[in-house]
Amino acid sequence: MTPLPPLSAVRAFEAAARHLSFTKAAAELGMTQAAVSYQIKLLEDRVGAPLFLRRPRQVVLTTAGQRFAAAATEAFALLNDAYAAARGEARDTLCVSTVVTFASNWMARHLGSFQVAHPALAVRLNTTDQIVDLVGGEADVAIRSGAGNWPGLVSHRLMLADFTPMLSPKLAESIGGVKEPADLLRLPVLDPGDPWWRQWLAAAGVPVDSLLERPGSHMGSQAYEGNAAMAGQGVAMLTRSFFLTDLAEGRLIQPFGLVCDDGHAYWLVYPEQRRNVAKVRAFRDWLLAEVKATLDQADPGSPVR
């Protein structure tokens, strides 16, 4: 086997690569900047190639440095995992950053089965629509909405962010029932400025001009709009997969089978170098299977009343 470099040198390099700063690496490791620089120089001598380009007030990873940094971060994550297991630690924590809609309308209803399967793993949800720094360790994994192209991250598509109008049965009855798409505009519309409304109405052949005259109310999340719709406050444009239980139990109705999408989806993402960390792997395998089981129960082509 090729002799390995000193662990202290690899540790200093990994921290500096993660922060792209010798100063921040030194602060994290409780070392001086000079000591970090020395350890990295020692490692570069052993590798036989520069790992950083030193520029004024900035360091940048070389191609060799990028390859080594990814492997080093993964190795330390696996080592930390193994160390915790060897010590017999009773609990570990998985931090999941997730958008509000997914947390409220899907995760909260399903997370219990993960906890049952992994009782020694505590889950902490960080509910935010802001993108957190996964590589920097702000969370272990994240649920994001978008097109799935986040450089440096592994992405698994969970479900399409499709949409269709939903409302309470009582609100529908207030106008004698919703029999055609144009009937929806006889009722209060939640978040009429949402582009999804214009796209769905256009697909249904309904003029959208009247939406421009509606008050520009905005709740910011399907979680809130869904609750408002169930309370009879208006018609909401919602993602069907998030409200299957409410549809099945009659709190909401989906009056039409037309379901649209704009190409966006919900994704599970995490850093490439952490793909084999035990808690990340456990959560990934559970989430992909649980989402598939949920979607297999639904028939998006048929309206639920």
UniProtKB/TrEMBL annotation:
Entry protein name: LysR family transcriptional regulator
InterPro entries per the UniProt record, alphabetical: LysR-type_TF_proteobact-type, LysR_HTH_N, LysR_subst-bd, WH-like_DNA-bd_sf, WH_DNA-bd_sf
Entry keyword Lipoprotein: no
Domain of life of the native organism: Bacteria
GO molecular function: DNA-binding transcription factor activity; sequence-specific DNA binding
Occurrences of domain HTH lysR-type (ranges): 5-62
Family of the protein in this entry: Belongs to the LysR transcriptional regulatory family.
GO terms for biological process, alphabetical: DNA-templated transcription
